[in-house]
Each structure stands twice: as C-alpha cells, then as structure tokens.
Amino acid sequence: MASGAGRWEVEFYDFVSGSPGVGVEELAGFGDLHERASRNGARHGTPVIVTVSGEVDPRINLFFRTGRMADATPSTWRRYAFALVVWLNFLHLCDQRWDRATFRDVEAFKHWRLTDVTNDGRVAPTSFDTDRAALKSFYAWASARYGVANPMPATTVAARRRNFGVESLPDSGRGRRDPLRPTGANRRQVKWMLRPAFEQWRDVGLRGYGFDGLRRPGWCGASEDRDGAFVDGLYGTGLRVTEWASVLDIELPAADMTRFPKAWLSAACIKGKKEGREYRIPRSALRSIASYTDPAAGSRAEIVERAQRAGRYDRIPGARIMTGYNPRSRLLSIEGEHGTYQLSIDLLGPDERRRLFRRSPGGLEPVALWLRVDGLPKKSHGWEDTFQDANARVAEVWVAVTWPGLSGEQRTSRKTECPLWCRPHMLRHSFALKWFSILSAVWQHRIDGFTDAEVADLRDQFGDIWYQMAALLGHRDPATTKDTYLEPFNALQVDYMMSLLNEEETSAVDTLIRAVAADSGRVLSPTVAIESTR
Q1: What global pTM score does this model have?
Q2: 414-446 pLDDT, tens per residue?
Q3: Where are the beta strands (DSSP E) in 159-317?
Q4: Whose CA is closest to 232, among 289, 272, 293, 277?
Q5: Which of 54, 162, 191, 469 has the most neighbouring CB atoms within 10 Å?
Q6: Mind listing the pLDDT tens digit for each residue in 69-105?
Q7: Are 264 and 337 in contact, with CB atoms under 8 Å apart?
Q8: For 214-220, which contacts have Cβ atoms below 8 Å and span 24 or more sequence positions?
Q9: What angle do CA 25, 30, 33 make, to 5 degrees?
Q10: How many CA atoms within 13 Å lie on the side-chain side of 146?
Q11: Counting beta carbons within 10 angstroms of the beta carbon of residue 533, is it exposed (0 to 12), middle (13 to 18) or buried (19 or more)?
C-alpha cells in the first residue's frame, strides 16, 4: 500500500500579496521567491503540485507554464490542477506512476470516480468530464514534450486502433465520441429557470422562506441581503459568476430613470481578457444592491465596521489605497511611496481588486462590492458554496413538507429528488433565453414585408438576433450562443412567439418557454411542496 507521504496537494502562486518567506531563515538564501518563480515561467495563480512531504515532479508543474496552458486563465488552471491532483492521488493508491499510466488505469479511474460503491466521494458525470479534459490536455502535452505514452483514448476509430492495438474495433461511422466521456456529460447540458422558479429558489434557499411564502421559524440569515443581491444580479445581467463577483462598488451605475442602466466590465475580469464591454444592470438588481450596501440597514456596513474594529484590513499584504476614481476615464488614483499615481481600473484582475481599499472615518474599507462575513472580499469560487448551501436548504424544506415524519437517513435519501435547484451558470442561461425570446419578436417585426433577398441583405448589414445575443452575453462568436446556450429553441416559429409576446412581457416570455420546453426536462419551473400520500 502506498504511504500517505506521497499524497499530492496543490498550491497557487499569489503575486499580489507580500513576498513569501520574508524573515524566514530557511528561505533567506533563495532571495525574492516571486522573482525566481517568474523567471521559471510562473504567474499569479499558477499551480504548484507537490506531495505532502514536499517532493515535486517539475515535469508536472511545467505543464502550466508552457504551451497553450501558459495562456489559460487562473480559473482554468485551478480546475485542471485539482483534476490532476485527484488523478495523481488515485495512481498513488494504486502504486502506479503517472508517466507509466495505461488506458486500463484511466478506465479504472473513471469507474472509481463515477460508480465505485467503495468511493464515498463519487462525482456527477459533468464533474468527471472536467477530469477527462484535464487529463487529455496534460498527456497530449507530456507525450509531445517527454515522449510519455499517452493513456488517453483518441476520438477516431483509426487512431484508437493504432494507439491501443484494437484491430477488431468496429467502425460504425460514428467513432468521434471519446469513450471516456460519460453518457450523462452531454456537451450541451444547459438548463434554464423561469423567473418564478428563480425567485422561489432564492427566497427559500437564501432568504429563509418556506414554500408557503412565510418565514421559517428560527431562520438566521446574516448575509441574506448580500446573497439575494448577488443572485439577482447574475439573473439580471447574464454575467459569469467570476465577472459579477469581481465588480467594485465604484463601477456600479448611478440610479436613474432608465430600466437598464449601463455599466462597464473590465477586460481583466472577462473570460479571454480581449477587451472590456458594456453590460446592463436592471433597476431591480440595483435596488437589491442598494439594500445590501445601505449604511444604516444593510449587512455590508456592519460587516465592514466589525472588520475595522478587529484591525483586519490593516493586515492585508499588498493592499492598494485608492484616493479617487474618474468614471469617465476609468482611472484610479492610488497612494504610492512617492505620491499619488494613476492606474486604469481595466488592468486590475479579480485578485488585485480584492486588495483595493479606501480610507473612511472608521479606517480602511474594501472597494470590492461583495464581502464575506469576516469583512474580506469574497472570491468567485466561494459563491459555489453559497449555491450548494442554498440547494441543500431548498431540498431540506421540500422534504420536510413533502415527506413529514421521515427519519434522518430517509430524509437524506429523499433530498436528491427535490425538483428545485440552481447552479450559477444556469442564471446566465436563463438571461440568454429571456432575451432570445424578446429579440426574436423584435426581429420579426423589423423584417415584416421584406423579401427573402432583402432579409438576407439586412442580416449582412446589421446581423441577426444571434449577433445581438452574442453582444449581450459577451461571446466573440455568435455560434457559441446559438449552438450551446439556446440550441433547443432556435427552430421556434417566430409567429408563435409574437402571439405570446403581445401580452405583458414577463408572463408572455414564461408562457413561451413552457410551451417550447414542456417535455424537455431542461427548464425548471417553480415547484409545489405538498405532503405525499404514498
């Protein structure tokens, strides 16, 4: 049996905090560790995979510093690094080295992750799909660079025969599917929520209500105004959770009479980081944020005051103190050693933004909008826990109403049947579906009376709804929007849409979505929790 000393873990370089090892005698001879890491190809957020005994395999860590992975986002590094650690620890338990792994090892890993009854940490097919993608990328790189045998199956029948010697493998003409891709990990596993379902999930999971619309006894939601405002913003803006989690309070538009005030999303916070873009925030979401940030009644001010009294902000390494902000030029004024200097807010990524502060009468105060209960800015992946906790509460309340009197083990089993749940990206999908419905109706109205040639010319000049949808979602390629987000809906007859959208907007869009997806199982409607008679 492999020893625990060989178990693998992962850490991530943090270049925006103070230099590590300062004052530590054991590290003094290494000089500036950040500088050394940079010379070796590391950047902020680059993973370092090590064993618990401190041993490293430099070939593994080089994967994140060269080739295509060197240009990946920190979120991609994070997902792939954790996937590799799980794989390496599995191999460690099997007394197998990563550079000698075979296709049988990969198959065993898939079984262990998905179906092995002795593994209490089994995952859903979509989670294993991330493992599969990480291993394919890693071994393709390692094979080319070090000549390591690639244990991952190719996606064509000819290549699989060549790589694995399976001469008898039949050719059905459909040999492009990866045999390691779980059947439940469809590339287009997209789900949407109707507005009533979203509000029900939010109120039950984050605000302490029951399915009857009444507050549950004993509810203590210290951060419910923050959590409610955050999910309202995701649903209303269509931003990715990393993007919305990185917004600073100075970037919010002022309340005005328009229904969807404009805001700017900085390039450093966007997936791909090509350029910044405008987006819209509904007034309803701004009202939720205003409640959260209210100096007298909101939880944010109270959290900040507690952190200031504890001196928590005075101990932040690498903190930048903002003295002013010009929203037109998007330039920050920052305190420096030799006076104030200016810095474009577009250059600050999520990690740097969490270390941006201003001076207030009570002391330093974060400029980041979303704060944890300890007063520190909340990281984007921390919101995954918020959604998981909300889903658990919804399931618990649903079981209590639907199956009263069950034992603890029975209740746990029934929770998996709860029909109401949410993931962060579902809110982005739901935003896309709502605007697809509205823009389809607008487009049809625009082209009424045009010939086919005139319609084609109009599309050439101004683009169709897919270009508008891509702009709303920040996609560079409209095909992403069409083929991934809204594929089941793109054949919908616009005439039918129009007949529905003549009604009041919200009910019309919801009616439309129900009609299209009634039997698809991919759109979540609000649920009714009633006691079961079985």
Answers
A1: 0.72
A2: 888 899 999 998 999 888 888 877 776 655 555
A3: 192-193, 262-265, 277-280
A4: 289
A5: 469
A6: 888 888 889 999 999 999 999 999 999 999 999 999 9
A7: no
A8: 216/397
A9: 105
A10: 17
A11: exposed
